[in-house]
C-alpha cells in the first residue's frame, strides 16, 4: 500500500505504554527543573508541585490525596496502566494529569 509521500511511523512492538514513556523521557534528555534542596518539580493537573526526585506515580497520587478508585493517570499525555503505578518513576519536569470518573447524565 503506498504511503502517499508521508513517512511511515514505526511502532514499538512489545512495549508497554509506560515503557514508551520512559523511552521518550530518555530521548528528551532534559533533566527537568529542580528547586533548591534537590526537590523535583512535576506539573500535576496544571500546578507545579515539589516532590522527591525519582518518586513513583503511586507516590504522586498519595501526595496530592487522589482517591484510590475511579482514577486514570496520564504522564506527558500517555495513560499509565494502574498495574504500573507502583514501579513507574515520574521524570523531573513531567506533566501528570489525574482524571477521576464522574457519574451522572
TrEMBL record:
Region Disordered, annotated ranges: 1-38
UniProt biased composition (Basic residues): 1-14, 21-37
Superkingdom classification of source: Bacteria
CDD domains: Ubl_ThiS
PANTHER family assigned: SULFUR CARRIER PROTEIN THIS
Name of this protein: Sulfur carrier protein ThiS
Species, as recorded: Baekduia soli
Amino acid at each position: 500500500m503506498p504511503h502517499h509521500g508521508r513517512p511511515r511511523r514505526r511502532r514499538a512492538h512489545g512495549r508497554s505504554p509506560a515503557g514508551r514513556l520512559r523511552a521518550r523521557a530518555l530521548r528528551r534528555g532534559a533533566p527537568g527543573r529542580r528547586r533548591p534542596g534537590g526537590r523535583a518539580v512535576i506539573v500535576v493537573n496544571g500546578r507545579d508541585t515539589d516532590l522527591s526526585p525519582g518518586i513513583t506515580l503511586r507516590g504522586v497520587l498519595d501526595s496530592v490525596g487522589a482517591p484510590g478508585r475511579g482514577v486514570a493517570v496520564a504522564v506527558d499525555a500517555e495513560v499509565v496502566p494502574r498495574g504500573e503505578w507502583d514501579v513507574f518513576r515520574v521524570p523531573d519536569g513531567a506533566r501528570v494529569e489525574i482524571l477521576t470518573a464522574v457519574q451522572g447524565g
